[in-house]
TrEMBL record:
Protein name: VOC family protein
PANTHER family attached to this UniProt entry: PTHR39434, VOC DOMAIN-CONTAINING PROTEIN
Organism: Brumicola blandensis
Origin: domain of life: Bacteria
InterPro entries per the UniProt record, alphabetical: Glyas_Bleomycin-R_OHBP_Dase (IPR029068)
Length: 143
């Protein structure tokens, strides 16, 4: 897992309905380091950023997805941008673990400005995550 780069880290708190499931997903499957916790929440080192899973009785409803590249992209979603080799290793490991994807790993803008790998999945509570990989990080905000 990446250590935080020179950019500021974000803090994001998300709802989950089961902290044990969150621990299995974020701690074991994604290999995020567990930080402080209580009976109501767990802090995670999410690829150098602070992610907090907060226990809720039920998940909020989700809006309809948006169509991107003829794929149904869930809204809202969050994620992380990785270097391409790290993205590929994570994608391969999740495939090996038979993780279900909303959108399976693929390359967008192949051979064009902003070329990137991407995939989407849900955590056990239904939060949507996107993982992107760039061979050239200077292309992240390219137009």
């Amino acid at each position: 897992m990446s250590e935080r780069n020179t950019m500021p880290a974000f803090h994001l708190a998300i709802p989950v309905t089961d902290l044990a499931e969150a621990e299995a997903f974020y701690g074991k499957l994604l290999s995020c380091q567990k930080g402080r916790s209580s009976e109501q929440w767990i802090d995670w080192n999410f690829f150098g950023h602070q992610l907090v899973t907060h226990l809720v009785a039920e998940m909020p409803s989700r809006p309809k997805p948006n169509s991107v590249d003829d794929k149904n992209v869930p809204v809202p979603h969050f994620g992380v941008i990785l270097d391409m080799p790290e993205w590929q290793l994570l994608a391969d490991r999740l495939i090996e673990e038979q993780q279900a994807f909303i959108i399976e790993p693929y390359i967008r803008f192949k051979g064009k400005t902003g070329e990137q790998g991407t995939f989407f999945l849900l955590d056990p509570a239904g939060n949507a995550l996107e993982f992107k990989g760039f061979a050239d990080q200077s292309q992240v905000f390219a137009t």
